[in-house]
Amino acid sequence: CALGIVSFLFVVFSPTVVKALEYGISGEIGVTYTEDEFKSESTNASLTSIEQRYRLNYRNFIYRPRLLTYFLGGTFIKEDGKSNDSKAGATSKDYDIRLNFLSETPYPFFLWASKQSPTSFTFQSGGQTFFTKQRIESFGLDGGFYFRGLPRLKYTLKQQDRTTTSQTLVTDERERNFLLNLRQNMKNSNVELNYEYKSILNRITLSEE
């Protein structure tokens, strides 16, 4: 089995681009070419795929960074694959949102949400090509309370939905997490308490772990 990967990342600097960077705007364009060859006594197959990735980011703040700093990112991906006997392709529109509130205070908190849609082309036994697509959507809240002389409290709440689709597999899960950390520093020691809750729901069979 031989594998060749060629990637190109285009970053252009011009007066306009430099000005955009000053305003918190950035981006990138990337192209990845993959060639995979599968050989055995009974099979000789090859697979080529091209991934195009376009990403645009924007970072700024509202009423000074002390109140809110935010990041907005969007990505468009187009992937095409071709093997000896078939073709497949997919497009996805992903996002990345981060909101950081009150970062310079004793009670900061952070909200975030994202979507990712990774795809893959793989060989199975016999040289058959399989196309797998995932969809991962997440959101959450992180924060804490940091007051002098009092225990430090940190918390995290998050939820993630994951789906996988291929010729042989379909999954759909929802995972929820809650983490709590309480810590008190003392002169010669410290006391720490951790709590974690985690649940995974299979939304196809509606069974929960």
Keywords:
209 residues; 12 strands
**Alpha carbon gap, first and last residue:** 38 Å
Low-confidence stretches are 1-10
Give the averaged pLDDT, no decimals.
Answer: 80
Gyration radius (Cα, Å) is 23 Å
Total count of helical runs of at least 4 residues:
2
Query: In which range does the helix fraction lie?
Result: under 10%
Taking the sheet with the most strands, its summary is: 12 strands, antiparallel
- Structural class comes to mainly beta
Strand content: over 45%
Shape verdict: extended
Q: How many distinct beta strands? A: 12
* SSE succession: EHEEHEEEEEEEEE
Describe this structure in words.
Helices cover 6% and strands 71% of the residues. The protein has 209 residues and is mainly β. Strands 1, 2, 3, 4, 5, 6, 7, 8, 9, 10, 11 and 12 form a 12-stranded antiparallel β-sheet that branches. Strand 8 (129-145) and strand 9 form a beta hairpin. The two termini are 38 Å apart. The model is unreliable at 1-10 (pLDDT under 50).
Summarize the structure.
The protein has 209 residues and is mainly beta. It is built from two helices and twelve strands. Helices cover 6% and strands 71% of the residues.
